[in-house]
């Protein structure tokens, strides 16, 4: 069931990202060309990040091949982000898409995928939080290997995976229905918001989980990773806002545009944004007018 939840999340993220990219002028179905790189590398990254943050489970006398025994469980979202980013970079290079354009289109779909994937934790009765007497507390069988020793049968625990599921869905809604309708969330800014939102929530949820984790300076390794995600997200937004204050002329790098993209411009954009986009595209073709029409635009 956990595997099915992850697969469903991947499918939903692909559909959402494809729809958003197509509305922004990308060739329909091009997301699959990138997914062929991003999904396998994301799975590999997720596994190896888990292994290296839980070394006692794999390097304390166990058989060496256990490192690859993914069917026994053990994946990490931060590792999948690293591996997936490498895959997206490769895929964008091959297809001509801008890396940041794809990342922005992916951001809400990634949150939806992570939310759906957390349903697998419920089926496995794992990755829960501290004991609680709240009415929505999760009951864990006392013979569950993850059940903390010394606690009475019937103890309820915080369903941290449920908290993260709700948090992720709220983040996806925030990006799509609020921020993108009020601000220019292109050039990687939507993805920066994703990193900040997910990192902030994960830092809290991770801090109240009871499953074993490597500690560094008294803090769980995944909390450090979550804080790093927040910092990286802030840096992306600040740097990209300064480098690219204007609209994104195309989801493709110059010279790699899909010929049918003019018919696929995002219908949700306002009329003024559409006029500015047309001017930016004209500036791309006429270097003499580029500075006047879109002074903040540059290839990325």
UniProtKB/TrEMBL annotation:
It is a multi-pass membrane protein. Pathway: Protein modification; lipoprotein biosynthesis (diacylglyceryl transfer). Residues 263-287 have a biased composition (Acidic residues). GO terms for biological process: lipoprotein biosynthetic process. GO terms for molecular function: phosphatidylglycerol-prolipoprotein diacylglyceryl transferase activity. Keywords: Cell membrane, Glycosyltransferase, Lipoprotein, Membrane, Transferase, Transmembrane, Transmembrane helix. The chain crosses the membrane at residues 34-52, 64-90, 161-179, 191-210, 222-239. Its EC number is 2.5.1.145. InterPro entries: Lgt (IPR001640). GO terms for cellular component: plasma membrane. Residues 254-300 are annotated as: Disordered. PROSITE patterns: LGT. NCBIfam families: lgt. Belongs to the Lgt family. Catalyzes the transfer of the diacylglyceryl group from phosphatidylglycerol to the sulfhydryl group of the N-terminal cysteine of a prolipoprotein, the first step in the formation of mature lipoproteins. HAMAP family: Lgt (MF_01147). This is Phosphatidylglycerol--prolipoprotein diacylglyceryl transferase. It comes from Agromyces protaetiae. The gene is lgt.
């Amino acid at each position: 069931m956990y595997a099915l939840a992850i697969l469903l999340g991947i499918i939903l993220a692909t559909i959402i990202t494809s729809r958003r990219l197509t509305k922004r002028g990308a060739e329909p179905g091009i997301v699959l060309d990138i997914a062929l790189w991003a999904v396998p590398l994301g799975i590999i990254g997720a596994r190896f990040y888990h292994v290296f943050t839980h070394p006692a489970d794999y390097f304390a006398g166990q058989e060496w091949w256990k490192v690859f025994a993914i069917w026994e469980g053990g994946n990490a979202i931060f590792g999948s982000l690293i591996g997936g980013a490498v895959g997206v970079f490769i895929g964008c290079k091959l297809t001509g898409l801008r890396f940041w354009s794809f990342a922005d289109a992916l951001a809400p779909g990634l949150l939806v995928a992570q939310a759906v994937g957390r349903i697998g934790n419920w089926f496995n009765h794992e990755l829960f939080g501290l004991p609680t007497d709240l009415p929505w507390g999760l009951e864990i069988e006392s013979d569950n290997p993850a059940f903390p020793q010394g606690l009475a049968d019937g103890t309820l625990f915080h369903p941290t995976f449920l908290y993260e599921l709700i948090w992720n869905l709220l983040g996806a809604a925030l990006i799509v229905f609020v921020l993108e309708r009020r601000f220019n969330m292109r050039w990687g800014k939507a993805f920066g918001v994703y990193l900040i939102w997910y990192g902030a929530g994960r830092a809290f949820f991770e801090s109240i989980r009871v499953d074993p984790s490597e500690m560094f300076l008294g803090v769980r390794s995944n909390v450090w990773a979550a804080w790093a995600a927040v910092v990286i997200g802030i840096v992306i937004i600040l740097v990209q806002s300064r480098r690219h204050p204007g609209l994104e002329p195309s989801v493709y790098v110059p010279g790699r545009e899909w010929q049918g993209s003019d018919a696929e411009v995002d219908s949700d954009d306002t009329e003024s944004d559409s006029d500015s986009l047309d001017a930016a595209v004209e500036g791309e073709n006429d270097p003499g007018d580029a500075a006047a029409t879109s002074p903040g635009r540059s290839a990325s």
